Amino acid sequence: MATDSAGTGTGGQPARSPRHTSGTAGDRAIGLATTSPFPALSQSWRLALRIAGAGLLAATAATHLDLYLTGYRTIPTIGWLFLLQVTAGFGLAAAVLASGRRIVAAAGAGFAAATLGGYLLSVWVGLFGFTEVPTTAGIAAGVIEIAAFAVLGVAVAAPAVRPPRGPLARLQPRAPAAVAAVAGVSALALALLGATAAQAGPAPAAPSRGAVVLKTTTIGGATVLTNAKGFTLYWFAPDTPAKSACYGSCAAYWPPVTGRPAANPGITGHLGTIKRSGGQRQATYHGHPLYTYVGDSAPGQAHGNNLNLNGGLWHEVTVTG
Description:
By secondary structure, the chain is α+β, with helices and mostly antiparallel strands. The protein has seven helices and nine strands; from the N terminus they run ααααααβββαββββββ.
């Protein structure tokens, strides 16, 4: 019986049709899989993404470590959360660098997204009684976190020359949509961070019209000085009776009380003013320039008391006699 020569190859083995080939030699050389609609990443590219992702995670962990050591450790709840972020950030950086598993990269991307989300929430609505102020350092850390999410997200979503196993294997046929989702989330995060950055920097203190009324209230058994709205007033240890040491991002967290003070009856002590660098008059009490704190969201709170933040200790202003 005659055989079809087109259907057999050498030695009678079935011939491979062009559509069953894995790709050209050039494709194989750079690690591309032509059977996928999205280019597969070669091992060298995946290694580069791992190194970049690990470096970015370590950078955001180092930023939080610096903030923790320079004052955030004294903030209730926020302090130990920062320490947790530092530990998790360095741990995930080491794990991503040492392991090529997608699940580890996914954990790193999730950590970066969660850290950024916490920062944005603390700026917009506050977290655990603490309200963050957008600063250059905070925005820079946010950019690093977005970059970490994008790099590690691509490492997870992009198809591989060797298909992955486990729960993330289902991403392989959906690689284009998964990578597009990573890009979309990263772009949205950049837009939100950009909107936050537009608020960065302290607004100039407006000169007060007329006298600044000072009152008192009782917090934790102590009689403390407040402004007319009942918000606690603070003094800053590095200040001198003639000069404020709180400017820039410090003044964003601790807005100075501007104007000439006038105390309610029963408040004793020397009242005065100093001149700030911008020309505004800042109220003083017993030689201490006065400030409010953005972390106090309602009268009767004193979240800023005994915080070591923005270069020194802060104390509520107590009234005696």
